[in-house]
Give the backbone structure.
Amino acid sequence: MSRITQVEVFPVAVPFARRFVLGSGAVGAPDAAPDQAAAVIFVKLTTEDGVVGWGEQRALPSWSYETAETMAVVIRRHLAPILLELTPFDVELFHQRAAKRLSPAVSNGFPFARAAVDVAMHDAAGKLAGVPVHALLGGKVNDEIPLCSAIGVGSPDAVREHAHQSSDYPAYKIKIGGDLDADTAAIRTVAEVAGAKPLWLDANQSYRPSALKQLLDRTADLRTIHCVEQPVPSTDTLAMQRLRELVDVPLAIDEGSFSAQDLARVIRLGAADLVVIKVCKSGGLRNALKTAQTALSGGLEILASGLTDCGVAFAAALHVFSQLELALPAELNGPELLTDLYVEGLSITKAVATVPTAPGLGVEVDEERIRAESIDLLYR
């Protein structure tokens, strides 16, 4: 087995092609200064045989607690020493040792940092074995994954323009921010453009139960609303439970469920109809699949998502979600929202992504660009 001999970390301020706002605040914009741009952490693992594995995750502290600084320090200071004792195939052993070194309190401990490493391990393992990552996970059942357009919080004109530009997409995910009038207008605006296509509402914790009921009462005539994602704060699982009694639209949990254990509690409380699975919050690929199996055993449907991935993590998500039956097209919005990606080899045609089949993640990483754009986190 080829042991890991080097771990490198590259923070990069990745530019957005358009302004993107969630219920919890702005994520990125084309004109953001380098010290205000959302940072992405790239990880490069090298084995004693010279095989390289790449990982990536976005730092988004307005969504979860990890920052670019904490991710870089955790990987360099705490996870790298563990990795230098392992091979890329020792994924479960890595997570066991990482959890012992950085003990999680309630759910996953530093899942974004661990996910970046986990993706890199799978990439290297696939290359060493000469198989795509999905083969390491049990094999794909879907060759292609339709994508969902992500419409950020904005004015009706901006929302309408984005929806028209996304006309190839088979579904729309609409970000809502807690303003009843503005959110009602946004939903109706997208519905006019979308026609019969399904609408996936995402509040990012910005609503109270009573206010959400008012919003859904105002839009009750729209029969294409498929679900509402994480309307209340992530810590208020009981509010999700109460909401299922108040409203008729299915509820999806996202920020309130990071791990399979989290989801088991949600199911026990009857607090959701669907779960959003992200590789980043799961802490890695196999952990994401563990959450999926928990969902299926508890009767919940699965939604696929990411955090505006830049190519490496996007490819990793394709490998994971190629195994699952999804309730809606996957909201993997990096190709839609970023100026470009940091990889070559992805195939996306009319909002449908092809699952890579080359060894590892199946993409070629632009290492020269990543190194050139790597930033010093001391000023951030």
